[in-house]
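Weekend entry, working from home. Most of the wet-lab plans are on hold until the incubator is repaired, so I used the time to fold the two sequences that have been sitting in the queue since the last round of cloning. Logging both here for the record. First:
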Amino acid sequence: MFRLKDLTILGSKAELASLPEGKLLINTINAHSFNTAKNDKLFAEALTKGDALIPDGVSIVKACRWIKAKSQPKERIAGWDLFEFEMNKLEELGIRKFRERPLTVMFMGSSQKVLDLIVKRAAEVYPHLKVVTYSPPYKPEFSDEDNKAIIEAINAADPDLLWIGMTAPKQEKWTYTHWKELNIHCHVGTIGAVFDFFAGTVERAPIWWQRHGLEWLYRLLKEPKRMWRRYIIGNALFLWNMTKE
């Protein structure tokens, strides 16, 4: 049974620094992904058996306190927070090791247009990093040939940091399913929306909205037709699930 009460969730942004080096799968959880995982066994397994789970939603933080969950995160850790922490850490390392070889960060997912914008911005913000990208086919399910091509591209890049961005739950399920086939040595984060934020194709909520736990409302107001079901019905469903727990 997939229950918030039983999950091991990172407690604060400061704890990101304590994550061990090496091959590590880092996923995020919010109200929407929790609701989805309740009815998706593979997704629930991917979230449960990953190496680290961060609370990407103020609802998760508050719910953990309310139901007296095993984990008691002190603050929300957005996917963007994870992205900035890992990228800044690698950039600092890249500065020190630049004369030896450039450190590589790979972005797998999204459209080629978004990936091109990511490469352009990364060159400005993280100049000491080599950026490699791969845009998978845009389809609900990948064929065996598609999966093989993606895995080969990742292994050939041998990145020092890997970001997977195909929206939840697809990105988490794909990474978990093919984890043993990825011959890499780095942290891997599943952060779909961050690709668009960093590329500048989607505007993130202003700081005030973020600080007050209202980033979801900002996204709803910006894209009501696409987001109403996720936030209006989804938030009510999450509250019902927490009541049952």
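Second, folded right after the first finished:
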Amino acid sequence: MNTSLPQPFQASIYQTLLPSLQIRSVNPRDPIEVCYVPQPWQLLGRGNYAAVFYHPDYPNYVVKIYAPRRPGYEEEVEVYRRLGSHPAFSECLYAKDGFLVLKRLYGTTLYDCMHLGLPIPQQVIRDIDEALNYAKKQGLYPHDVHGRNVMMHEGRGLVVDVSDFLHQESCSKWVNLKRAYYWFYLPVLRPLRLRVPYSALDGVRKSYRFITNCIHLLNQLVLKVNFFKYLKL
């Protein structure tokens, strides 16, 4: 996994990025805060546990760094080890000292495609389906696959975030997104080429989270009620 990186690039990671970078995670349910990024490094994206950076002189690499005291680094290294090389996934080129160097994926998230009014062809959905099935064959459990974690590039589908692919609990996010694509996006939104405001997309996302949380709580309540009924028998 640890391939040879360009020496100036590796030196910049250890001598510039890591010593000066300031990130913190206040709430594990919210994106981490990036307080300071040393030049010439640039922030590419941030999640609830980690942030991704790139060096403008080496645009095909990204460095993923986890916030202090947040889990997931070892698990993500193992996920990439199992995935190996696949066109719909990134690759881990270097993993050491608590950070990963990944092959950079270019494209537009499906979330942003909706906002920009970019048509999403069915091939993108098929590519992502195939990639997730491939991951399952490698002993992984595709998890937390949603509109911000998958991308479209030149009409093909890509999976961006695989950090939760060792979680064995059931996750229906991709199934629900795919259902919405075929039932609502293709017959209604795509012909109109509407640009959906981020406020509306965020509203849908929050409503989905609220509904799924309610369903989860209801299922837990039903299990408890059935358990108590069993004890009384």
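Plan for Monday: verify the second prediction. Residues 213-217 have pLDDT under 50 and may be disordered.
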